[in-house]
Amino acid sequence: MLNKVPEVTIWFWVIKILCTTVGESFADWINMKLGVGLVNTAWIFTAVFVVVLGVQLRLKRYAPFPYWLTVVVVSVTGTLYTDILTDQLNVPLWISSAVFSVLLAVVFGVWWLRERTLSIHSVTTLPRESFYWLAVLVTFALGTATGDWTLELTGWSPGVSVLLPLGLIAAITLLWKFGANPVLSFWLAYILTRPLGANIGDWLASPRVAQPGEPTGLALGTFTTSLIFLGLILATVVYLTVTRSDVTETYDATHTPQVTANPRRERIALAGFGLLAVATGALLVWAHSQPHAGPAPEEDTTSTVHLAPGQAVKKFPSKKVDALKALASTSLKDAQSGNAKGAHAAAQSLRDLWDADQASLQPLDNTGWTFIDAQMDQVLKTFGIDHPNPPMSPAEQEAELRTLLTDMR
């Protein structure tokens, strides 16, 4: 069997970052804009992942379209698993990062014990390819957890957050050029492309929030961002299909083999990786100690404006209002039936959709948006979402949800 993984050239890293970015943006669009919900989105992409992975595993050699489609889907799937742990099960990000780090170490350990290699240039059998895709899935989950944890610690804006993974990838590349172990260098960079691509997607899609002295998003929205990057991915895959520049046997036929590894340089580079890790940790500790505004709740959770029922959403698109009302109604029904977990999950999805729609709704009617936003915050407060207080009683949750639905009728 021929190698099932493309040659690692600059094209590999370009399209890998593109796939990560579109995966993040597309998942957000389905989850929040279409109101599908986080868990349902995860189920959808898990099913799609099983199908595309089955097609990929049946192939006898590397083919650009099925391979990169699998990368896109696995990037979304791994991200969703981490998001479920964080948003649905309230698992702290540092715990998720630790768990996925251990899990990845286990995958690599079993892979090595069985195959005696972790090199992607040796993915020529079904067991090795299975280990490869399992490792890729865990790296996306790990990259999501560590990336989000970094933002939680630092409070960096979307634009600034791009710089850390980009700088780390550049440093890893320099150490690899110096003589670092290529397999170790590859997997470290592979993990870091996840937070890099996600941060680029957030920077492009997030609204232009007025924060003096801080870079803001470009307000392209998740749908537009997804379309742009899907187009770039398609163009790149077509190019690779025509030129075959990322096919291993083609690359090997036109390039001289790499020089044998230098053990001394590998040891020095390994020490360099250690210093890089220490420096990154020190940077995060310093950034965490600086004053910064995290995703804390608004101090003023009441509105000084009083509007008649339905007046606040009069200028908003009916489809968007209907999607919000559907989630609020689901949360209310679950709360009434005693399904606390379901009510909490629906309230979180309601929060996500409302936040995602801010850029499009607020310009239409700032007064109406502010009025609903205040009531929305009261609902979230009863569930303990984005607030330090524990969840309130089901009766209080039901009362606030009914008020919200009345305001949006």
From TrEMBL:
Record-linked Pfam families: DUF347 (PF03988)
Keyword line: Membrane, Transmembrane, Transmembrane helix
UniProt superkingdom: Bacteria
Record field: transmembrane: 34-55, 67-85, 91-111, 131-150, 156-176, 183-205, 217-242, 268-287
Protein name as catalogued: Membrane-anchored protein
Species: Streptomyces naganishii JCM 4654
